[in-house]
């Protein structure tokens, strides 16, 4: 399979993981963890431990009333 075709397929697969929630484009933590090949628990753990390395709007939690 040519490299160009592989990268096109990869982009299409990634695009399918992007959701629109309350006007924001997001990727769920479980999907992001699968991209990196790690358990969701570990991804969230590392994001908590290294908050200063991520942009402020990189991660948020939704609740019924709004963003936490």
Summary keywords:
68 residues; mainly alpha; 3 helices; two-stranded antiparallel sheet; 49% helix
Task: Reconstruct the topology from this structure.
Blueprint: H1 3-17, E1 18-21, E2 24-27, H2 29-36, H3 40-49
Helix pairs in contact: 2-3
Oligomer: single chain
Percent strand equals 5-15%
Structural domain tally: 1
Low-confidence stretches: none
Order of helices and strands: HEEHH
Q: How many beta strands in the DSSP annotation?
A: 2
Structural classification: mainly alpha
Q: Calculate the mean pLDDT score and round it.
A: 85
What does the largest sheet look like? Answer: 2 strands, antiparallel
Strand order of the largest sheet: 1-2
How many helices in DSSP terms?
A: 3
Q: State the share of residues found in helices, binned by percent.
A: 40-55%
Instruction: Give the CA-based shape.
Output: globular
Distance between the termini: 45 Å
CA-based gyration radius: 15 Å
Descriptive notes:
With 68 residues, the chain is mostly helical. It has one domain (3-53). The chain is 49% helix and 12% strand. It contains three helices and two strands. The chain has helices at residues 3-17, 29-36, 40-49, and strands spanning 18-21, 24-27. The protein has a two-stranded antiparallel sheet. Strand 1 (18-21) and strand 2 (24-27) form a beta hairpin. Helix 2 crosses helix 3 (40-49). The radius of gyration is 15 Å and the shape is globular.
